[in-house]
């Protein structure tokens, strides 16, 4: 099979795996591009199974890059969040979202699987997300199918019950997020509290480059007071747009023409139970390709 045909048939799956492994679309695209460039230099008669070769190469490159980044991750300033992606059916950022469970790109899901070891993560994603048979996984990770079964079971047991979150943007969700945004912009403490729960958690990833709490904030009262306190620091030309981020309802924030933050939300029973705010500018570079301020909602007075 020609490299171009391989990319058309397997590229989306490889990018999907790499993004979930890395939590970064930029890394995922780089790794997959490097893999296809490398296969062009390999004699065709030495590649018995092109599919297994590509997935093994992408998996190994992900692990190598994760290993190289491990010290940086250990000293990361504040909560680490995956790089946000725009979803919603255009197929550009998550090519597989049409036929795999969309919640597997949610922030909650990605944070959970990033607790696994690198090998466990590969096996778990290949089996749970991409629905590969153990025999296929064994060839990709160079282990026996029995060993892969054991690794998968261990990973599944380690993760426990994966929380179910609403994905997509429904009408009642839009109303709730608009209510939150209006309360945020107007500084209405009462309405802000009504959109949250007593157990809501706010994660903010500034990466040490943008001012943000170094620990998650717990509870609607503390979170609401935090937002009210930082409201005067918002840019005067602040505006936002409602988008689907990581298969969840989200807001993209702008200062004039410049995108400066995203927040995605876990919604349960018409209340916000988790918020994932990404302010680290390095993590917003990829998403800038897919959002523009042309569809911004006007500021709410």
TrEMBL record:
Domain RNA polymerase sigma factor 70 region 4 type: residue ranges: 107-159
PANTHER family per UniProt: ECF RNA POLYMERASE SIGMA FACTOR SIGJ, SIGMA 19 FACTOR
GO molecular function: DNA binding; sigma factor activity
Subunit structure: Interacts transiently with the RNA polymerase catalytic core formed by RpoA, RpoB, RpoC and RpoZ (2 alpha, 1 beta, 1 beta' and 1 omega subunit) to form the RNA polymerase holoenzyme that can initiate transcription.
Protein name per Swiss-Prot or TrEMBL: RNA polymerase sigma factor SigJ
Gene Ontology biological process: DNA-templated transcription initiation
Pfam family name, one: Sigma70_r2
Domain RNA polymerase sigma-70 region: 6-71
SUPFAM superfamilies in the cross-refs: NTF2-like, Sigma2 domain of RNA polymerase sigma factors, Sigma3 and sigma4 domains of RNA polymerase sigma factors
């Amino acid at each position: 099979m020609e490299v171009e045909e391989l990319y058309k048939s397997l590229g989306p799956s490889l990018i999907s795996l790499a993004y979930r492994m890395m939590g970064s679309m930029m890394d995922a695209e780089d790794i997959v591009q490097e893999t296809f460039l490398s296969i062009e230099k390999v004699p065709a008669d030495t590649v018995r199974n092109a599919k297994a070769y590509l997935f093994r190469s992408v998996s190994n490159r992900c692990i190598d890059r994760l290993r190289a980044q491990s010290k940086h991750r250990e000293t990361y300033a504040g909560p680490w969040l995956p790089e946000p992606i725009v979803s919603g059916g255009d197929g550009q950022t998550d090519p597989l979202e049409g036929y795999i469970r969309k919640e597997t790109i949610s922030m909650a899901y990605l944070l959970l699987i990033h607790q696994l070891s690198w090998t466990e993560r590969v096996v778990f994603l290949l089996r749970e997300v991409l629905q590969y048979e153990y025999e296929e996984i064994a060839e990709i990770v160079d282990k026996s199918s029995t060993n892969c079964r054991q690794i998968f079971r261990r990973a599944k047991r380690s993760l426990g019950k994966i929380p179910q979150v609403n994905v997509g943007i429904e009408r009642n969700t839009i109303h709730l997020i608009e209510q939150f945004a209006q309360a945020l912009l107007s500084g209405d403490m009462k309405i802000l509290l009504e959109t949250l729960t007593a157990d809501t958690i706010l994660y903010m990833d500034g990466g040490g480059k943008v001012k943000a709490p170094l620990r998650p904030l717990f509870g609607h009262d503390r979170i609401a007071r935090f937002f009210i306190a930082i409201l005067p620091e918002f840019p005067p030309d602040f505006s936002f747009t409602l988008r689907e981020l990581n298969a969840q309802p989200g807001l993209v924030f702008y200062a004039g023409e410049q995108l400066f933050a995203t927040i995605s939300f876990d919604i349960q029973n018409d209340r916000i139970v988790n918020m994932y705010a990404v302010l680290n500018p390095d993590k917003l570079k990829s998403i800038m390709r897919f959002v523009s301020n042309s569809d911004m909602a006007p500021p709410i007075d």
